[in-house]
Specification:
This protein folds into 2 domains: 115 residues, Hypothetical protein, domain 2 (Endonuclease III, domain 1), CATH 1.10.340; 43 residues, no CATH class. Helices cover 54% and strands 0% of the residues.
């Protein structure tokens, strides 16, 4: 019997929605160790003990954010997220009551936030059980392993194959991620 552990929402994404999204931005497309270091340096830019609030991010200069290790595009994304959070445009307080499609539509209005980030937010922050992150390479690689495929499936193939897991596609995704751990 293979044991895969606990597939509950990520405890590191507890707290305000802004912080969960900011963390996702920092961690996108870089090694976990590097992202953890950058996240810590951004956190240390303000006197508070946690990650800066949206207002605090707006009070930081581009040079400060870049000096902490954020790329130019991640700095732009972080600042746009902060602006849209402070203005209320994203409606983060009520976002948990929206449908998955509405959440994706709202979040992707932030420059640099795409469907993958929105999917991760739905799964790990909002705890939605029926999300299939078709753009996630590890999920696609997991399906390749599971089904013994020669090549990693395309997103549309993954989506079609995932229909049998509805309404628990997020849970299936979690197992597909675990298949790639070895």
């Amino acid at each position: 019997m293979i044991f895969f552990g606990n597939c509950s929402p990520n405890s590191s994404l507890r707290g305000p929605h802004f912080h969960a999204l900011a963390r996702s931005i920092v961690y996108q497309q870089i090694a976990t160790a590097a992202a953890t270091a950058i996240y810590g340096r951004v956190r240390d830019l303000t006197p508070t003990t946690g990650f800066p609030t949206a207002d605090q991010v707006l009070g930081l200069s581009e040079e400060e954010l870049r000096g902490a290790g954020l790329s130019r595009s991640k700095t732009r994304t972080m600042r746009d997220l902060a602006e849209k959070t402070v203005s209320g445009e994203l409606g983060l307080r009520s976002i948990g009551r929206q449908t998955d499609e509405e959440v994706i539509k709202r979040l992707t209005t932030v420059w640099g936030v795409g469907e993958w980030t929105a999917h991760m937010f739905l799964i790990f922050k909002l705890g939605r059980l029926d999300v299939m992150p078709t753009g996630d390479l590890a999920v696609r690689e997991g399906l390749k392993i599971l089904d013994g495929m020669e090549e990693r499936p395309r997103p549309e193939m993954l989506l079609e194959r995932a229909e049998v897991w509805r309404p628990l596609r997020s849970v299936a995704s979690w197992f597909l991620w675990r298949l790639t751990d070895n």
